[in-house]
Amino acid sequence: MPIYEFICKNCKHEFEALVYGNEKAECPKCHGRKLEPRLSLFAVSAKGSSTNTSSPEACGTCGDPRGAGACSMPDFD
């Protein structure tokens, strides 16, 4: 089940939607169907040792310090 990012052309609302099969996404704010797809970024987190010890850069969309795409991840704190 891919998650897609859209901008509604009617109200300019930015949102993510799970799209199943042949379903069409709908704006959750105005229920419009004229949508512009966005390039989606994702983040991968792996437990264990890593050779990269630098911390990730903040998300360019929301500034989340966990890195790009982290704003769409749940908080596990």
Structure classification: mainly beta
Beta-strand segment tally? 3
Following the backbone from N to C, one meets helices and strands in this order, namely: EEE
If you compute it from the alpha carbons, what radius of gyration comes out, rounded to the nearest whole angstrom? 15 Å
Distance between the termini: 26 Å
Broad shape? globular
Helix content: under 10%
The fraction of residues assigned to DSSP E strands is: 15-25%
Largest sheet: 3 strands, antiparallel
Write down the domain tally.
2
Query: Strands across the major sheet, in which order?
Result: 2-1-3
What is the mean predicted local confidence, pLDDT? Answer: 76
The oligomeric state is: single chain
Stretches with pLDDT under 50, minimum 5 residues: none
- Tally the helices: what do you get? 0
Protein architecture, described:
The protein has 77 residues and is mainly β. It has two domains: 38 residues, no CATH class; 26 residues, no CATH class. The protein is built from no helices and three strands. A three-stranded antiparallel β-sheet has the order 2-1-3, with no helix packed on it. The protein is globular and about 40 Å long. The mean pLDDT is 76.
